[in-house]
Amino acid sequence: MPTARADALLAGLRGRLVVSCQAPPGDPLRSPAHIAAIAASVCAGAPVAGVRIQGVEDIEAVRAVVDLPLIGLWKDGADGVYITPTAGHARAVARAGADVVAADATARPRPDGRPLAETIRAVHEAGKLFMADVATPEEGLQAAALGADLISTTLSGYTADSQGSPGPDLELVRALAPRVRVPVCAEGRLRTPQEARAALDAGAWAAVVGTAITAPAALATRFASALT
């Protein structure tokens, strides 16, 4: 991606909200048409900076109706490294229309045994930016050293090397933001507008929110639980 375009894309994300529009397996909303409708609704109804979309077909469907920056990924599997786990997955996400390709950048072994640097290189060769989904400060620093264009705290609490918490991992944001020269995005367990604001105050470049906005079942469960 040309430097001027990359700079403009990143500048457009700064201090703003990115909405993750996804649906888990078995959910009635799990179809490209539904995800595209959710993304279009979110983008039309709020001043969001971009969307994060899972799956090649969903990315293609959303790209057809949304002009904002699109962070794409491909979840393949359910254990270990499964977020865009190989360079081949990354190329497919890039071809589908993502502006930014997100991938697991943790220290865990990748399923094809290939290094993370190969995936980053494939994304750059496709003219896209690379977002490193990490769980620890060390992983974020390593990803930045390898050439990642953005870092996201997506996997904090989901690996053996990171501790989970009920809320967002703002300590990870604070640990990374001053130490890398690329944007650090807060993602994971951001449930309220106040927590999203706190993430920016902690040094996050942007706040990525999914379940709290685009998951009706989870929202209904929260309300029902409060009533009972």
UniProtKB/TrEMBL annotation:
Record EC number: 5.1.3.9
An MF annotation (GO) of this entry: N-acylglucosamine-6-phosphate 2-epimerase activity
Record-linked InterPro entries: Aldolase_TIM, NanE, RibuloseP-bd_barrel
Pfam families: NanE (PF04131)
Keyword Cell membrane in record: no
UniProt similarity note: Belongs to the NanE family.
Function comment: Converts N-acetylmannosamine-6-phosphate (ManNAc-6-P) to N-acetylglucosamine-6-phosphate (GlcNAc-6-P).
Protein name according to UniProt: Putative N-acetylmannosamine-6-phosphate 2-epimerase
Species: Streptomyces tubbatahanensis
Taxonomic path: Bacteria, Bacillati, Actinomycetota, Actinomycetes, Kitasatosporales
